[in-house]
Design brief:
MetI-like fold
Length: 272
């Protein structure tokens, strides 16, 4: 009884801020402006397939780059002394203490044609490079903003790997490469999967980064939804349909990631 009472505030919060909005999204997605049932909104989502593909591609690219940069850093942090670990983790989290919008504005200042980076390149004779309003700028913004969500779960998993397991592999004649590929990396897969999920999901649905760093030529799903609710193309029914399709895609991706996670856990973690 006490447990149910303690859970009551969470149930109320979840109902108001999660369940009710999702129900409203479903209702709007399958109704027209008059409130009549229709599948037209879902059918119209197909005309934005290029936006979905672009969002998935850029989100996946940002996730891969975050993993490539985040894994070595998490591995290095996990192998230094405890005091330095705390300092490094604080530095990783430091950008998150600043407002998301301000961080993105800072990158606009750095990447614009007359920004700090281009002025520096011009001063050393390389010449200016057009970086703002490109897909590369969008990916860079995603990586910068979301890479802490990759590093933290990786660091958490890597610090929990028992050193005796690594020593046992070395005693059996495994070299450094074999220790990493057959022991460390397989045992860190739960962190990899968590990091990939935590980066890919917000990256594929972002709209602030693509709007500010990508310009109109790099429209993503989040921008499309924003336009339907707040822009000149005001159509909340179509916006809800796009949101519903996005939710389904994200749930499918999370389901696939969970299957990989369950496979790793049941497999014991070490490759032979």
């Amino acid at each position: 009884m006490k447990a149910k009472s303690a859970a009551a505030p969470y149930i109320v919060w979840m109902s108001i801020f999660i369940i009710v909005p999702m129900i409203l999204v479903v209702i709007f997605a399958f109704t027209d402006k008059s409130g009549n049932f229709t599948l037209k909104n879902i059918a119209e989502v197909g005309q934005y397939s290029n936006v979905f593909l672009r969002s998935i591609w850029l989100g996946a690219l940002a996730t891969v780059i975050s993993l490539a940069l985040g894994y070595p850093l998490a591995y290095i942090i996990s192998h230094i002394n405890a005091r330095r670990q705390s300092i490094m983790i604080m530095l990783v989290m430091l950008p998150m203490w600043m407002n998301f919008l301000l961080r993105t504005y800072a990158w606009m200042t750095l990447l614009e044609d007359n920004g700090i980076i281009n002025n520096f390149l011009a001063s050393i004779g390389i010449g200016k490079i057009h970086m703002i309003n490109t897909s590369g700028a969008v990916v860079l913004g995603m990586v910068y903003n979301y890479i802490p969500y990759m590093i933290l779960p990786l660091y958490s998993v890597l610090t929990k790997i028992d050193s005796s397991v690594i020593e046992a592999a070395q005693d059996l004649g495994a070299n450094q490469t074999e220790v990493f590929t057959k022991v460390i990396f397989p045992m860190s897969m739960p962190g990899v999967i968590s990091g990939v999920t935590m980066v890919f999901v917000p990256a594929v649905s972002t709209f602030i980064i693509s709007k500010m760093l990508g310009g109109g030529a790099n429209l993503m799903i989040g921008d499309l939804i924003d336009m339907q609710f707040l822009g000149s193309a005001y159509n909340p029914n179509l916006g809800s349909a796009i949101s519903l399709v996005l939710m389904v895609l994200i749930l499918i991706c999370m389901g696939i990631m969970n299957q990989f996670s369950e496979g790793e856990n049941s497999g014991g973690g070490i490759m032979v």
